[in-house]
Design a protein that fits this description.
heterodimer; A: Rossmann fold; six-stranded mixed sheet; B: mainly alpha; 2 domains; 10 helices; 2 strands; 73% helix; 4% strand
């Protein structure tokens, strides 16, 4: 297919050559798709996202992006490196590591500045992001002074400032209050409607049908156990339970005890 | 919060025992964060903040070189006073500036300068004799002059460096270093250190609180040593993780080792006037040192 952006074939990766993180992964991602990577903690989701962002490389198998094999050597080619970094943006799971500049403003403009975007254009993007995220009052503050929700918003803004075609998000709603989580989901949906490819790792099943059309589910043995349309996957309770994505939850409600499957980790109802 | 009566005394006693260490630790961390990460002064509208950072850095290097080559204590004191005067014109609180410079000063100079006072290192005309048990220490005039010169030189130099760092934003300073062809690896290392210091300060603070929440405030000294050892090991492991994670986050957004800044660097009339003044002052200092 012409519009394939990422293609992973039989990919294996391990940390320190002894802790497997990905085992035999085959994935194809096309332009404009909305994809979710789901699975329990430690199932290899973040490792996959880092690999898609060209930060780590497979021990075995091949990863190609925009028709070129992603190997460590290709990033020594300044032209490809610049092209790739402009096309793909990753929002890290931990915003602390992503926000390393003295002020929020500098963090947001860091990417486009490094990529040589013209200063007027950077200012235009900054103004737009400030308006979209409603973060005008945060601009001159130091990132460490922000709350977790603010940090995550700034981390997303700092990635969107690059205006990448592919946005990769690692647990974007983790630890957020419902209102901020909603804002972030809306931003993801809006980005996809404007033609961007969205790849999100999450175990928050409540947001899954909004942020993705199809999903890849990772098992504890670091393999893809199942992939397909989100609606199909969410309707298979037994499968979700087997993969630690839902659990049986008991609670009291108006004086009566209820027991039912509980689908996500962050909210209670 | 209501504390049951039986626990109130214990809670007070427990916190009292470690108060000094806790206050010192948090005080040091807070000072470190404030002094290294507050860019409040760099954002103020003062004389030095309004200069082109390239001109300012170059002129400060010039004045630093003057401090290194001057051999007269009074002239060095004039240079130091000039630095304080400029700090005031740059709307830096005098108390804050003196605290910043004098806190680090003894570490740099006193320990090195003290031995130079004595005849064993600086033979010459005796000024004062000290009898310490069997040891007879003689302070010489030459020793006093050498130590005095060393300390004033350090005071003047450190003050100028701190004034530069207070009135220039960190990222701008790094970009200027690259403009002056300081090797990329050196600039990247400074930038990375700067980022980590804050994260480490936070880590130490949080680890201390985490330990306290689990073991309480009273800890046997032997256990205390173990906890400190764990902290050091934990900090090391986290630093390795952070090192990689932050670098990956930078790479992900196109970092290639060259710091870039949004602000346009422009030389104005003020910069030319400043450069002229620096040359005149340097010349005056040289003449004062030679003929004064």
């Amino acid at each position: 297919m012409d519009n394939v952006i990422f293609s992973l074939k039989d990919v294996y990766f391990s940390y320190l050559a002894k802790f497997p993180a990905l085992c035999g992964i085959d994935i194809e991602i096309r332009q404009g798709e909305k994809i979710a990577v789901i699975g329990a903690n430690g199932s290899g989701k973040s490792t996959l996202l880092h690999m898609l962002d060209g930060l780590i490389f497979p021990d075995r198998g091949t990863v190609s992006a925009f028709g070129r094999a992603l190997e460590e050597g290709v990033f020594f080619d300044g032209e490809f490196s610049g092209f790739f970094r402009q096309k793909v943006g990753l929002v890290f799971q931990n915003p602390e590591v992503q926000l390393f500049c003295p002020t929020v403003k500098e963090d947001i403009v860091f990417g486009p500045l490094q990529l040589g975007v013209a200063k007027k254009e950077i200012e235009r993007r900054l103004d737009k992001l400030v308006a979209d995220f409603n973060i005008a009052d945060l601009l001159e503050r130091m990132p460490h002074q922000l709350s977790i929700g603010e940090k995550r918003k700034v981390a997303i803004a700092s990635t969107l400032a690059i205006e990448p075609e592919v946005i990769i998000l690692d647990e974007p709603s983790a630890g957020l209050d419902p209102r901020t989580a909603r804002q972030i989901i809306d931003i993801i949906i809006k980005a996809n409607l404007s033609g961007k490819t969205i790849i999100t790792a999450t175990h928050d099943l409540h947001i899954l049908d909004e942020i993705a059309d199809s999903a890849y589910c990772f098992s504890r043995d670091k393999k893809i156990t199942r992939s397909g349309p989100v609606a199909e996957l969410l309707s298979d309770r037994e499968f979700l339970e087997q993969n630690n994505l839902v659990h049986i939850h008991s609670h009291r409600h108006e004086g009566e005890a209820h027991t039912h499957p509980h689908e996500h980790l962050d909210h209670h109802h | 919060m209501h504390i049951p009566r039986g626990y109130q005394g214990k809670a007070r006693g427990a916190s009292g025992g470690n108060d000094f260490i806790e206050r010192s630790l948090f005080g040091v961390l807070e000072f470190l964060k404030d002094s290294l990460f507050s860019e409040e002064y760099a954002l103020r509208k003062g004389l030095l903040q309004s200069l082109d950072p390239r001109v300012k850095t170059l002129s400060f290097v010039f004045l630093l070189a003057a401090a290194l080559f001057l051999k007269s204590i009074p002239v060095l004191i004039w240079l130091y006073l000039l630095c304080i005067f400029l700090a005031c014109l740059s709307r830096i609180s005098l108390g804050f500036f003196l605290k910043r410079t004098w806190v680090f000063m003894p570490l740099f100079s006193l320990f090195i300068a003290v031995p130079a006072l004595f005849s064993a290192f600086s033979p010459g005309e005796p000024l004062l004799a000290l009898n310490l048990w069997l040891l007879k220490l003689i302070i010489t005039k030459q020793g006093l002059c050498a130590a005095g010169l060393f300390v004033t030189r350090v005071i003047a130099s450190v003050s100028w460096v701190i004034l530069l760092s207070l009135t220039t934003r960190h990222t701008v300073l790094l970009a200027v270093l690259r403009i002056f062809k300081v090797p990329q690896i050196f600039v990247a290392t400074i930038g990375t250190c700067y980022r980590y210091i804050y994260l480490f300060a936070e880590l130490i603070e949080n680890t201390y609180l985490a330990v306290k929440s689990r073991v309480g405030a009273r800890l046997h000294y032997r256990k205390g040593r173990e906890v400190v050892a764990w902290k050091i090991a934990g900090l090391w492991q986290r630093s390795v993780y952070l090192n990689e994670a932050v670098y990956q986050a930078m790479l992900s957004r196109g970092y290639t080792g060259e710091p870039a800044v949004l602000a346009e660097l422009k030389c104005t009339v003020l910069d030319w006037c400043w450069s002229f003044c620096v040359i005149i002052v340097s010349l005056l200092l040289y003449l004062m040192s030679r003929y004064g």
